[in-house]
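Intended use. Records such as the Short-chain diamines transporter entry shown here are meant for training and evaluating sequence-to-structure methods. They are not intended to support clinical decisions.
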Amino acid sequence: MLISKRRMIHALSYEVILLVIIAIALSFIFDVPLEVTGTLGIVMAVTSVFWNMIFNHFFEKFERKHQLERTVKIRILHAIGFEGGLMLVTIPMVAYAMNMSLWQAIVLDFGLTMCILVYTFIFQWCYDTIEKRLGYTPRHS
């Protein structure tokens, strides 16, 4: 199996929980209907998945062509390129859906990114704890 059941559960639970948190938080903070923030979250998540596939395809071609080693510097450039490219697409979405200026959308997107970093850490820690209690031991290949 290309993707294990465990990985699918992990990815789906991560995305669904994040989507619910963001949709509710944005709706509450900006007094925007939950349908708007929920739809925005779904569209942004789908966009992120497609951008991930496209960006990584071309990044890996670039990597092979230039025989780059995956150093910390390359990973930082990869992360900046990925997030920067994603922001070029999602900031106008945020501005439109939330009825705000591009500058406000940039600030909001940056704030969301910082919150998602914290969420990711907490989610991973909780997920690891749950797996440990269930007796799962990760195998490293």
